[in-house]
Amino acid sequence: MARVLIVGAGLTGSLCAALLRKEVAGPLHLVVWDKAGDAGGRMTTSSSPQNPQSTVDLGAQYVTRTPHYAKKHHRFYDELLALGILRPLTSPVEGMVVKDGDCNFVAPQGISSIIKHYLKESGADICFRQCVTQINLRNDKWEVSKETGSPEQFDIVVLTMPVPQMLQLQGDIANLISECQRQQLESVSYSSRYALGLFYEAGTKIDVPWAGQYITSNPCIRFISIDNKKRNIASSAVGPSLVIHTTVAFGVAHLEHSTEDVQELIFQQLENILPGLPQPVAVKCQKWRHSQVTNAAAKYPGQMTLHLQPFLVCGGDGFTQSNFDGCITSALCVLEALKNHI
Known about the structure:
342 residues, alpha+beta, six-stranded mixed beta sheet, 11 helices
């Protein structure tokens, strides 16, 4: 039975796992590792420590389907809509630019429910807090080392984390990347930003006419969403939750600052936009060092194969674009590349 390791439990990694389970005939032992404490990657949903039912999407806010991908990826959209994992976004979002024929969807259970659905479909062994450090060749297998625990051996490895993290990996993998591939990997760039999640007591009223708002006049804040309102969920037992995304310029300027300092600066600016907000009962500040891809690996659309025997392949939005369809495209390209090796 082939042992397959997928590094990264974001959209590309989870969908790769689900597609492999569905489309590969032979028996597979699928393993997914992620360095975070939960699934989602940049489609993560965070819960209030006070009330697990109070959640906030700290990464992607909604999914935009263009007419092109409505045709090309219809099976993915149809499935998620039929299961109620995605629903049309009907709440008002001020300042949102909607192009002709585009459709926006929200995830009522939080955006990470998409990833959790694919991981469940995959039947993979999922391990969190597994930070991969080295990948070495041992007897025609990949020996993968992590920060804690013993190294493990796999027949196939799929890397789906942000490209700069791939380039930091030690061991034989560093020598297997060709000069052309390395140039392409080093050319991949990302924007950076912070997200602040605020959780409020049940019964708290946030009296604004919108569920989300794009801000153009603030040096720090780019987007605000009242997450339960965005998803059209009202509950007397669960308080509202708010997410604030900073501008990229603010994210880059404060990338190495302490979370406490950044949090304080965002709060100060938030007071200018929404004066008199009540005190939250819990706060979650998330630094997105690798937020959205600003320059992808153009010569390797969808995936980059680093080694054939044993097989090692890279995928993710660094090889396409930072959105739902970009990750689907990459997962399908990885699957195509893998099919000949399983």
